[in-house]
Write a structure and sequence with these properties.
The protein has about 220 residues and is of the alpha/beta class. The protein is built from nine helices and ten strands. Bound molecules: tricarbonodiimidic diamide.
Length: about 220
């Protein structure tokens, strides 16, 4: 079995029982002219994760690993969006409002799509999720159970929001969750750094952290 060099400890993993989960690498969060930039964020911070995510995807595909791409977004009628989430942010810049790449965080809109550099391939799972965590109100648990998955390699954006929530959810459900630090990113560099520290603190309180290079090396 491959050994993955990670913090706080190395772990062995069976690629046939491991899934790469790419979180919310969507145009609205990452591209200049999207919703993220409209809110005043420096999207180049998130762009830094695209190359490492592409490298992780290439390795996982070559190894025949399961790949899951998630997208955060809602039904066009907003019926699945809690009022508390809809009321966040300045008026006219909220979920469902007209944004620069279509309605903000609405399924089917251009900005909701995954960036072209990381486009899903045939046979990969694309998971639409209404929350920050990938398990909340989705069929991810069943999809992973059907393949006897026990380990999740997690990358994407943002480190402290959707990546963190998914790793916390996965850890509580019994999965071994490993963040690829350089393949995650945040609009807030300090949140990214501390977010990774939090996962691996206290002996790996809810997961492991490693690098894309260590992951690709472990697969040979
Ligand atoms: N995907 C994800 O993290 N969604 C967010 O809303 N993140 C923020 O950091 N805002």
């Amino acid at each position: 079995m491959p050994i993955l060099q990670a913090e706080p400890d190395p772990l062995d993993f069976d690629p046939a029982r491991t899934a790469l989960i790419v979180i919310d690498m969507q145009r609205d969060f990452l591209e200049p002219g999207g919703f993220g930039e409209m809110l005043g964020n420096d999207v180049s911070l998130l762009q830094a994760a695209v190359g490492p995510c592409a490298a992780a995807l290439a390795s996982a595909r070559a190894a025949g690993m399961m790949v899951v791409h998630t997208r955060e977004g809602h039904r066009p009628d907003l019926s699945d969006a809690p009022p508390q989430k809809l009321s966040r942010g300045a008026p006219a810049k909220r979920i469902g409002d007209a944004g620069p790449m279509g309605r903000i965080l609405i399924r089917g809109e251009a900005g909701h799509d995954i960036v072209p550099q990381l486009a899903p391939e045939a046979g990969e799972v694309v998971l639409d999720k209404p929350g920050k965590g990938a398990f909340h109100q989705t069929d991810l648990a069943q999809i992973l159970a059907n393949r006897s998955i026990d380990t999740l390699i997690v990358c994407g954006v943002t480190t402290e929001v959707c990546v963190h929530t998914t790793i916390r959810e996965g850890n509580d459900r019994g999965y071994r969750c490993v963040a690829l630090g350089d393949a995650c990113a945040s609009y807030f560099p300090e949140f990214h750094r501390v977010g990774l520290e939090m996962i691996k603190a206290q002996g790996g309180i809810f997961g492991w952290v490693t690098s894309t290079g260590a992951f690709t090396a472990s697969l040979g």
